[in-house]
Design a protein that fits this description.
about 850 residues; mainly beta; Immunoglobulin-like; Neuraminidase; 3 domains; eight-stranded mixed sheet; five-stranded mixed sheet; globular; binds 2-acetamido-2-deoxy-beta-D-glucopyranose
Length: about 850
């Protein structure tokens, strides 16, 4: 009977996972496998191996029918009105009352409690089950809340089920733990939770103890029946994920399952040797037929021409720019030698680009226009719009929000701090990983009015996640951090997302974060760079940021390039002073713990370094920077680049510690601007953009690198390519948007209409936990944001989601309710930037920025 119950639980688990109709769905397979014996032993039996829970040896298991219990007895630690589950080691839970019933029903019960097996001492101990006598009594002040069923010896020396109150019990409170089949986790050697490279083979080994038979298969139909097996990663074409299903027959005859979704890491000539790089091999060309808006400012301003390497296309990239005469935002596919491929795609939006990332379906862009409207837009390869999300569209200096993306901090539907009334989006960056878009952007928020009537407005940054396929399923990493977040960097290492924001007040340093993109949890450290980078709280800082780099052969160490200069700064009574001039590389670990600093330049020359670009180049780092004339050195770094005065240098750094491999060489023929972009292409060449004063979009590129041969298969012990061990623990996604409570379907401010949250969680799907929010019913309600469609508020059948494989949901949704609202499609005709030069817009924007940056007291409270 117990066997049936356990299997039933396993089946329920599988049924739940069917609700997650999304990419990289990972379903635990509940079928048995050929030749398995799933009848439990008739008499009590010890497992051959000791069990390991986490890293602790928790002793042998005893098979009591279909229940596997640990021989060790665990103490019930707390007087508990909640659950007793925390008393067992991970992967184990206390016996329930039903388990007690099954055990007492056995003829060998006395032998089980005797000295050979459990050695229970009923005089000294009270043995609790996890079942409450009154299941609904949970309140801490309710005596009944502490009463649980226990296994006891009655006056006739018969083992019975009794009950006891953990609050008043005087005996030692104990429990017997059993294997938790609902949370069975596969434990693997040869995979560390990092995305894998397509086509590469990895030797893996299951390390769970007490396994009698193995049955493993992947989504390409490969099967393995041994503890050690060779898995070749082949992510799904559209979404880049693959699944591995595990079925294990355990000691005691039980069959358990687990499922792992593994995402694909794009190959970027990882570990290619770049040490023979010749500076003079950098080539340049002007992108024909393009006159783009230039931005030579550093902060509080968008980019000029961000680029995105194309996934699965070794040598081409997208460049995102706005046409100088119209501000029309365009995307051009470009070969690695700077030749346009096909005609540019008109995104049907105007404004200034923030960033672009490529996805399997096309690309995703983020931009803002001069009406202070910012958005994220997904476009298919054929140029059709896939989805469109407004981030901010509240106009200039709003007192109340009109249209913006919304996140709620509680079930009272209060908007998140610092996102109650956003305006003036300044800059931002995108990342695409695991089927999701991560976006950080800096913006103002209006917090209300001061007593004297002045506005209480400040700048910080916000970071969110959207499903790349649909633009829905929004989650938030944080809502208001790092003033003023002058510049943001992002780096995904195949597992975690690293973010750096340059602050000028809170903190006067670079604020580093490392985030789990599946749980949206981050840790941060604004003291990785030792000492201060003074700022003035008004947009000026005595430092600059370069970029991140992952160490080859040590996945847990990162490098980051930065500059700072001697400066006296401070804001609102917080003084900050630094006497250090340096261009340096700081090393830290995946928990953002500082390791070391390599100083590249110091003294006068370092104080003049202004714009820094650094990108991985094979196993090393390509560094470029500008040096301003000595006469222009000031207390803070200069806020713009000057192509006539600034000198550009390029160097190669060691990927191990960031030291110089090839000393800086001046490149007289070109410039570097903070607003332009440097990226590594899949074949290892680096492409970068520079929009010059004549509005030419210059493309620079290095030669490609030779991709090294990988071992086949890659074994765990390989010091460079090998992976460590991994336990597929269920990740806990804390609710962080309350949209199921706070957003009605059809609301023009819709976020995700999440009808599925109350369904049981799918514990099998731990690599893709967001799927529980992504119900098929809720994802396709809104096709309204066809930007070209502003006059056509009636016709709702615009099938922008034609590639959406959630086909069944596209037919009968309530398009009407959302499409009648055209507030998300403001007309572009009154854009004051159109037909003016880009400089005007940026300067206007910058001036107003400064004037808003006046009162900081609330921010200080918020950030303290
Ligand atoms: C597995 O679960 C499905 C429902 O998801 C059910 O229809 C099927 O019968 C189960 N298989 C077995 C062997 O019980
Ligand atoms: C169980 O506890 C609840 C909450 O304290 C109480 O309302 C209810 O009457 C209790 N039921 C029984 C059968 O005692
Ligand atoms: C103990 O055993 C006697 C005789 O078998 C029986 O009458 C009595 O009910 C038992 N008491 C308990 C508490 O089970
Ligand atoms: C937007 O709607 C217009 C008019 O219905 C249509 O011609 C156009 O293709 C749509 N654009 C996109 C990107 O779907
Ligand atoms: C740095 O960013 C993190 C977000 O990861 C935030 O929690 C923290 O408060 C920020 N630090 C400051 C000083 O703003
Ligand atoms: C890699 O990039 C270079 C540009 O440096 C290009 O010429 C070459 O064709 C690319 N290689 C492949 C295999 O695409
Ligand atoms: C789909 O959404 C509607 C609300 O529009 C709701 O009534 C219905 O129950 C949902 N269906 C599913 C399967 O969630
Ligand atoms: C909507 O578009 C369809 C074709 O796409 C057309 O047949 C229909 O007349 C249009 N309806 C309205 C109200 O514009
Ligand atoms: C889309 O749905 C229709 C109707 O349900 C079906 O006939 C068609 O095969 C589906 N297409 C895909 C690609 O699933
Ligand atoms: C959509 O709107 C049209 C006209 O505006 C109306 O005739 C139709 O019934 C509406 N459909 C739904 C599903 O509300
Ligand atoms: C759509 O926008 C136009 C122009 O801004 C406005 O007049 C109209 O009322 C809007 N329609 C709806 C349904 O919001």
């Amino acid at each position: 009977m117990q066997l049936k119950l356990s299997l039933l639980l396993l089946f329920l688990l599988s049924v739940n996972s069917i609700y997650t109709l999304s990419k990289c769905q990972c379903t635990v397979d509940n079928s048995t496998f050929p030749g398995s014996i799933n009848t439990p032993p008739t008499s009590l039996a010890f497992s051959p191996d000791n069990e390991i829970a986490g890293s602790t040896n928790v002793g042998k298991l005893i098979a009591v029918g279909s229940i596997q219990i640990l021989q060790q007895i665990f103490q019930v630690q707390k007087q508990s009105s909640g659950q007793l589950n925390h008393n067992c080691p991970s992967g184990y839970i206390p016996l329930t009352k039903d388990d007690f019933t099954a055990i007492i029903g056995r003829s060998d019960i006395n032998s089980l409690v005797g000295s050979t097996y459990l050695n229970l001492d009923f005089k000294k101990n009270a043995y609790y089950s996890s079942t409450k006598v009154n299941a609904t009594a949970t309140k801490g002040d309710d005596n009944e809340a502490y009463v649980y069923f226990t296994l006891s010896l009655n006056k006739n020396n018969t083992i019975v089920i009794d009950n006891s109150n953990t609050y008043w019990e005087t005996k030692i409170k104990s429990t017997v733990c059993k294997r938790n089949l609902q949370q069975f986790s596969i434990s693997l050697n040869g995979y560390e939770g990092f995305d894998l490279e397509k086509g590469k083979s990895y030797q893996m080994q299951i390390t769970n103890k007490n396994v009698q038979q193995y049955y493993i298969y992947d989504n390409n139909g490969n099967k393995f029946t041994t503890q050690t097996f060779t898995y070749t990663h082949n992510g799904d074409f559209q979404w880049g994920c693959a699944t591995l299903n595990f079925k294990l027959q355990l000691f005691g005859g039980l069959i358990v399952g687990d499922c792992l979704a593994i995402w694909t890491n794009n190959q970027i000539a990882f570990n290619a040797d770049s040490s023979s790089f010749n500076m003079n091999s950098i080539k340049t060309t002007v992108l024909q037929g393009v006159k783009a808006n230039e931005n030579n400012g550093f902060f509080f301003g968008p980019g000029s021409a961000p680029i995105a390497p194309i996934i699965g296309d070794s040598s081409s990239f997208y460049v995102y720019y706005s046409i100088i005469t119209s501000d029309q935002l365009m995307v051009q596919k470009v070969s690695s030698t700077g030749t346009p491929i096909g005609s540019p795609i008109d995104t049907k939006q105007v404004g200034k680009p923030f960033d672009i990332v490529s996805t399997q379906f096309g690309f995703v862009v983020m931009a803002a226009d001069s009406t202070q409207r910012a958005f994220i837009q997904a476009i298919n390869k054929d140029g059709s719009q896939r989805w469109f999300r407004i981030l901010v569209n509240n106009g200039d200096k709003p007192d109340s929000p009109k249209d913006q993306i919304e996140f709620f901090q509680n079930d009272k539907c209060e908007l998140s701090d610092g996102m109650t009334c956003m305006y003036e989006p300044e800059n931002g960056r995108l990342n695409y990983a695991r089927g999701k878009i991560q976006a950080i952007w800096a913006h103002y928020n209006h917090f209300g009015f001061e007593k004297d009537g002045g506005r209480n407005d400040h700048t910080g940054d916000t970071m969110i996640s959207l499903d790349a396929d649909t633009g829905y399923n929004q989650n938030i990493f944080w809502s208001w951090q790092t003033s003023h977040s002058l510049y943001q960097n992002m780096h995904y290492d195949g597992k975690n997302l690293y973010i750096a924001s340059l602050g000028d007040a809170y903190p006067m340093n670079i604020n580093f974060s490392v985030c789990n993109i599946d749980t949206y949890q981050c840790i941060s450290n604004d003291k990785v760079v030792q000492g201060d980078i003074p700022g003035n709280g008004l947009g000026l800082a005595a430092g600059r940021t370069g970029g991140f780099f992952s160490l080859i052969g040590n996945r847990n160490q990162k490098l980051f390039v930065y500059q700072r200069k001697a400066s006296k700064g401070g804001y609102e009574g917080v003084n900050s002073e630094s006497s250090i001039n340096e261009l340096a590389v700081v090393k830290f670990d995946s928990q953002l713990k500082y390791a070391s600093t390599t100083t590249l330049l110091s003294g006068d020359i370092a104080s003049r370094v202004n714009c820094i670009k650094s990108v991985p180049f094979g196993k090393n780092i390509l560094l470029a920077y500008t040096v301003i004339p000595a006469s222009e050195v000031d207390n803070y770094n200069r806020q713009n680049s000057e192509s006539k005065d600034d000198q550009a240098y390029i160097a190669l750094l060691s990927g191990i510690d960031g030291s110089f491999l090839v000393k800086p060489t001046q490149l007289p023929s070109f410039q570097i601007s903070q607003s332009d972009d440097w990226r590594i292409l899949e074949n290892g060449s680096i492409a970068y953009t520079y929009v010059d004063k004549e509005s030419n979009l210059n493309i620079y590129y290095t030669p490609a690198l030779t991709i090294p041969n990988y071992p086949n298969p890659i074994t765990t012990s390989d010091s460079i390519y090998g992976f460590g061990s991994f336990i597929n623990l269920q990740v806990n996604v804390e609710k962080n948007n309350y949209n199921d409570k706070c957003v009605k379907q059809g609301d023009s401010n819709w976020s995700i209409v999440d009808f599925e949250t109350n369904k049981p969680k799918n514990s099998s799907n731990s690599n893709n936990p967001i799927n529980q929010n992504n119900s098929n019913n809720s994802t396709n309600t809104n096709n309204s944001n066809n930007s070209t469609n502003s006059n056509n508020s009636k016709n709702s059948t615009n099938p922008t989601n034609s590639n959406n494989y959630n086909n069944s949901t596209n037919t009968n949704n309530s398009y009407n309710s959302t499409n009648s609202n055209n507030s998300t499609n403001p007309s572009n005709t009154n854009n004051p930037c159109v037909l003016k030069s880009s400089q005007d817009c940026i300067q206007i924007s910058f001036a107003s920025t400064i004037s808003h940056l006046s009162i900081f007291s609330l921010l200080a409270i918020l950030l303290q």
